[in-house]
C-alpha cells in the first residue's frame, strides 16, 4: 500500500466538514516518501477545490532519504507537496504533536498567510533529528575524544535545550503551547472562524506552476 506514512481523511468538527492530515510513525517513522508526498498533493488540492479547512497533526521527521528514495524521486514529489501547501488558500491549522524536522517538517503549513500553529509540550524542532545531526556535524571531534560516547551525549544534552517548543513560542513561531486535552475544544473554536473566512460559492481554482 502506497503512501502509508501519511494519513488523510475527511472528518467533522462541531458538525462542519474538514480535511485531516497526519503523519503515521508506524510506517517509515512518519517520514515523507514520494508516494506519501503525491498522496498529500492530491488530498490538499481536493480540500482546496471544495473549500474544506485543513487540520494537520504534525509528527514529521522529514523527507525519506537513501537510494530507494532517490529512485522514487522523493525530492521532486516533495517539492510538489510543498507547492500544494503554499498554493492552498483554505484556512489551515497545524497541531504539532512531536517532531517537525527539515524542509518537510517546516512545510506543515503556509507561513506566509493565516495558518494557526499550536504545539503540544512534546513538540521537537530541528533541521535534523538531534542524534543524527550531532553525529554528522561533530564526527571528527567525537572520534578524537577520550570518551566518544560521553562527548556525544554532552553535545546532545547541550543542543537538546534548543529544540524546545517553548523557545519557538517565545519567538512567535507558534501561537501557543497547549495541553493535549485542549486540542479538540480549541479546534472546535477555530472551525467557526474558519468557516466565516471561506468563500460562499464553489468555483474553479487556479494554481501556479509546480515542479
Summed up, what is this model?
With 211 residues, this protein is α/β, with parallel strands linked by helices. The chain is 42% helix and 20% strand.
Please tell me about this protein's structure.
The chain is 42% helix and 20% strand. The chain is an alpha/beta fold. It has a single domain, classed as Alpha-Beta Complex (2-enoyl-CoA Hydratase, Chain A, domain 1), CATH 3.90.226.10. Strands 1, 2, 3, 4, 5, 6 and 7 form a 7-stranded mixed sheet that branches. Helix 1 (34-49) packs parallel to helix 3 (74-87). The model has no long low-confidence stretch (mean pLDDT 86).
Brief descriptors of the model:
single chain, 211 residues, alpha/beta, 7-stranded mixed sheet
Topology (SSEs and partners):
Blueprint: E1 6-13, E2 16-23, H1 34-49, E3 54-60, H2 67-72, H3 74-87, E4 92-101, H4 102-106, E5 115-119, E6 124-126, H5 130-137, H6 139-144, H7 148-160, H8 165-170, E7 176-177, H9 183-197
Parallel strand pairs: 2-3, 3-4, 4-5, 4-6, 5-7
Antiparallel strand pairs: 1-2
Helix pairs in contact: 1-3, 5-7
Amino acid at each position: 500500500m502506497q503512501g502509508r506514512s501519511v494519513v488523510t481523511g475527511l472528518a467533522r468538527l462541531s458538525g462542519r466538514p474538514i480535511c485531516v492530515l497526519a503523519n503515521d510513525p508506524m510506517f517509515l517513522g512518519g517520514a515523507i516518501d514520494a508516494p506519501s508526498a503525491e498522496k498529500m498533493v492530491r488530498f490538499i488540492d481536493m480540500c482546496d477545490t471544495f473549500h474544506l479547512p485543513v487540520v494537520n497533526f504534525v509528527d514529521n521527521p522529514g523527507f525519506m532519504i537513501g537510494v530507494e528514495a532517490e529512485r522514487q524521486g522523493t525530492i521532486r514529489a516533495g517539492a510538489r507537496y510543498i507547492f500544494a501547501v503554499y498554493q492552498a488558500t483554505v484556512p489551515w491549522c497545524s497541531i504539532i504533536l512531536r517532531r517537525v524536522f527539515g524542509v518537510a517538517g517546516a512545510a506543515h503549513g503556509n507561513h506566509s498567510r493565516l495558518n494557526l500553529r499550536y504545539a503540544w509540550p512534546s513538540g521537537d524542532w530541528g533541521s535534523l533529528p538531534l542524534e543524527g545531526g550531532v553525529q554528522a556535524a561533530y564526527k571528527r571531534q567525537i572520534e578524537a575524544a577520550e570518551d566518544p560516547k560521553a562527548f556525544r551525549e554532552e553535545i546532545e544534552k547541550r543542543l537538546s535545550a534548543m529544540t524546545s517548543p517553548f523557545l519557538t513560542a517565545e519567538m512567535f513561531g507558534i501561537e501557543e503551547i497547549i495541553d493535549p486535552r485542549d486540542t479538540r475544544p480549541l479546534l472546535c473554536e477555530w472551525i467557526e472562524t474558519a468557516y466565516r473566512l471561506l468563500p460562499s460559492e464553489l468555483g474553479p481554482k487556479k494554481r501556479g506552476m509546480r515542479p
